[in-house]
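User: Predict the complex.
Assistant: Input components as received:
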Amino acid sequence: MSDLSHIDGLIAPRSVAVIGASDDVTRIGGRPIAAMLRAGFAGRILPVNPKRDRVQGLPCYASVDDLPETPDAALIAVPAKLVPETIEALGRRGCKAATLFSAGFAETGAEGEAAQRALVARARHHGMRLLGPNTLGVYNVGIGYYGTFSSSLDTGMPRPGNIGIASQSGAFGAHLGALARDQGLGCSVLITTGNEADITVADAIRWMAESDSTDVICTYMEAINDAPALLAALDAARAAGKPVLALKSGRSAVGARAAASHTASLTGDAVVADAVLSDHGAIVLRDPETMMDIAYAASKKVFPARHSLGVVTVSGGAGIVASDEAERVGLPMPAMPEAAQAVLKAALPYASPVNPLDCTAQALNDPSLLDLFTRSGLEEGGYGAVLCFLTYVAGSRAMSDVILEAMAPLRAAYPDRIIAFCALGEREVLQRYDDAGILVFNDPCRAVRALDAILRLGAAQARGPGPALPEVVPVALPEGPPDEAQAKALLAGAGIAAAPERAVQSAEDAVAAAESFGFPVVMKILSPDILHKSDIGAVKLNIGSAEAVRAAHAEILSAAATHAPGAVVTGVLVAKQLSGGVECLMGISRDPTFGPVAVFGLGGIFVELLNDVALRACPFGPETAREMILSIRAAAILQGARGQPPADIDALAQMLSRLSVFAAGAGARLVSIDLNPVLAMPEGQGAFALDAVIELDGQEEAAHGH
Amino acid sequence: MSDLSHIDGLIAPRSVAVIGASDDVTRIGGRPIAAMLRAGFAGRILPVNPKRDRVQGLPCYASVDDLPETPDAALIAVPAKLVPETIEALGRRGCKAATLFSAGFAETGAEGEAAQRALVARARHHGMRLLGPNTLGVYNVGIGYYGTFSSSLDTGMPRPGNIGIASQSGAFGAHLGALARDQGLGCSVLITTGNEADITVADAIRWMAESDSTDVICTYMEAINDAPALLAALDAARAAGKPVLALKSGRSAVGARAAASHTASLTGDAVVADAVLSDHGAIVLRDPETMMDIAYAASKKVFPARHSLGVVTVSGGAGIVASDEAERVGLPMPAMPEAAQAVLKAALPYASPVNPLDCTAQALNDPSLLDLFTRSGLEEGGYGAVLCFLTYVAGSRAMSDVILEAMAPLRAAYPDRIIAFCALGEREVLQRYDDAGILVFNDPCRAVRALDAILRLGAAQARGPGPALPEVVPVALPEGPPDEAQAKALLAGAGIAAAPERAVQSAEDAVAAAESFGFPVVMKILSPDILHKSDIGAVKLNIGSAEAVRAAHAEILSAAATHAPGAVVTGVLVAKQLSGGVECLMGISRDPTFGPVAVFGLGGIFVELLNDVALRACPFGPETAREMILSIRAAAILQGARGQPPADIDALAQMLSRLSVFAAGAGARLVSIDLNPVLAMPEGQGAFALDAVIELDGQEEAAHGH
């Protein structure tokens, strides 16, 4: 894990040199200086430009060597070809952090990539950290530091606040910053990482996780360039109680095409990334507006322990719309206790006090009803959050006086819950509610989605950390590709059961094997030379007696002798014939970003047509495996739908967990594992891999190492 | 279909009496007068109140009888108990339209419902139309008519425009109006229908469809009280080229519970309602924000014929986010033609000109790039809409001059396409783009969703009206419940094929039947007294020869004689045993709102666990049936996935269409039909119902009639 101290200098410098400083406030070398002057940056700004004595009223220095002090940070706004010597001069001078606005590196092709690598080597030599190249830079609102040339500042400066943004894309990061500002939200920092030659979004997230100024972390990623660092950063943020809202683009075929052409690195599989980021506590989103809504709610730092919503409404219709959205996103809206309903009904006979709690337009004449219904939702309903649909009613100044008087004591009495309004009106009026600690949304459905995210976070925090990861021991893999029997043997060593089977050399051994398993059994020829055993009659199913075993043994050997006279026959395989279970599929694939990923699904159409699978990075324990198994849409089939007996989900979970541990221990040579089908027998009767294929990569070990 | 002339008087009156007029501008009888005075209503306002000579500066009349003229409309703001005499007085006076603000009718229970029915009878007697009771009323922005007591006007008056709103819920309708206003959108009318004792949202929609002032119709419904009128209104709006955006609440279990308790009528099945409303051209939504976004886009009245999107962006990241959203909602983003890509690449070497078309931040220095990329998207790309992601860059006044200069000629050159911006900034700056005919959104994903809806509408308009509905002829149903054979015979009369089968009385007849069908066959006992035929061995499958038919015949009769000695045996059924097809399910259920609805799905888990079905109101033709069949998620199985031969979808579509025609002709006694399974054979080999159950309702005909 990289040292953050120099990143601190990059994001919160006490002095900054601007190499290529300009008097023109619309140029890359002029914008940062103008912004810092406007914002009253408390540190020293040190312009460097050989052609000027002063820049924007500040003393200007001819070169890095002429600087009167070693700056904490440098902003480099010179053409690409001048960047190496600039880095060198800064390094000699002892500067430890540089932001490289300059473009023309890895994003332009192989030559630029080589130049970029050389830059990093040069910087490392001097112990200097680099942001960029091809970055829009950084701003740090609290100290007025604007190491950025973003024109987003032309339409207004950010408001100070506790929402931090880390983005690979400069323009998109600045869009998020401007969106926050236009929605009245306060930001701490914006960090855009560009080509990520050195500093990545992972570093930026970790810096924010450790910084006092940031409580909510928004991040936009196109490619994950250092997965272990990113996951460690997410873990650090989670440990610090700071939500991470992640927008990972490149989900669609079109999007992935654009991402690959846009950045210098490949976009990983979005589905895997979603699963892994969520697993590390990130809230994965797909649109900036939802990100800002959740960031707004999270910025208040109230994360109730219960994932449940009460809706108090002056409009029955709005209550229904909000309820529909809650059901759609899976946010529970339990009914009020009957005794509490009776109390509310007594106070307002026409009320519908179940949940939504409809206090009708009567609450406008009598705001004590609003207080009563909301209080009852918090106290008797016990909801993690109560959303009050007040629409334009809350938007007039006169009503806001009355409403605030009713709600302020409630806000104080339930500090660990959320009270949110859906309200329309002038920003100044709505701001009064926000100032009183009440969340304000314009749209009931956006409110429901944001509250759902916050309540899920709160419930996860209340549950505490998940189960510890299982211990991984290195797995010795064979040199060459394992055949089915070897694959099953390898997996058996990891505790993964196949159907009982035995290779035999005689008819009597076959009978003994069959009797030890119990009938019926399956028998097939064992020969490395015979691929299509069924086609030549060398596979027999459903063999039900000792006599039939003897007959099958003879027939199989005879079929092999007749149809494949030259083949080496090493014996006959006798296996217990299993039936009555549910066919599942388990597998491992190596994700280029996250390493081995386990997948679980039901056999057949569920996987092939509906893509109904659960994914997880390896390793994980049986509790997690159980969650995965139950998370697929078709899980009801395993639980006993359609008259089937419930399947042995415990055994499946053990097998899936052991498979994940095996994959984690097998290292980078393991390309994939397919257990297809796995037969999940009825409860208590186990789960068995009926086939196993392990694919190894002998040659490209280095390419897969991380 | 009801006469709209009196509704016209209700929504656009030249004179309005206010019964229960008040000087207090916060009271129900005071608010409408204050609002009309503020808005400069051009008609006459006639306050009625026995206790006052003047109200809010206007002459006030002691009673309806004292009015100096017959008003076009009356607003009734008196307590429920005084409403009947008020209606009577207005009726005597010749007033033809009254808005009943008063509550205390059907929403309060059986007594109120009876009072409400009596009101309607009294009004009908006088030829008077009623809005409400329990309505928030109507406003008509263009003429300054405010027949409403909504406090939404306290936070500002609506802007004039061409978006009309019809809502059952008063507060929610007013919320939509306030939302439109706060988002800078212009409205024509707001009509809230309350208890819908007489006038329904269907009437309101039809009025808007015929009114020149409205081009886009937004509607909010909790219950559909007059389905044929609603569908006719939707058809009228579609014929007039006016999009209807429908928010039908009560989707969720919680929502439906709230809807039932909130209104005086039951909420129909939301899934059926969605399907039927969509089928009649409505855009069905679930949140008010999306409704307003689409209404905004539709208000410009440009509906391109091609459902395709081009994205021009100054930020690669934003282009990807927009692409991901487009893929999610199913909006195609075809790649640019290669020749056009080459031209763009020549103009800007680092551009990524596929689609999204990334013109990079370089477009800020050279706005001609923005023009070039957008023009190329419209011309060579041929996209129905081009969305330009310009974010804060477009938000400064200086840049807006430059951008408008570049884009205005384009706007003029492609009047049948949409140009939309995603931009952040002050409303005044963004308004300049809107004034130039460019749609402006803050969020790229909201923009994509709104454009998708508009482009779908445009493509549907370009396709023209769908196929004509098939002719329905009345079906004669039996008195009692039909058994399987009778059900199959009834359906056979409608052209719906079962597997070939014949009842026989001898072994030789059985052989003849089997030989006429071809082997194998199925045989089973025919007896009204034996229910569980398989259990006693009276069903034989897979009978492959004449000899086996004779044996089976004897065994079946013997099994029946042994195990059910007293049963009446009417013969033996011989049926062709079909195999090799795909098991499907077809059925009819009677929706309480929309009558017979056809459902199609694949057999088994697809329906039971995944609810993967297509729905449609009956009747419909085979083209529509084909669309339904291909719309299910598992349609690939019918098209030949997993190594199966493609199924006979034409035969399935014919069967489904014929079933819909049968159901439409069967009338209200038909409760349901289940054809489960229907076996879809390989292409060219037909589809056959293997079982058929028809449920009739003899007793409750009246209850099901509509």
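The first strand of chain A starts at residue 15 and ends at 19.
Let me know if you want any component modeled separately.
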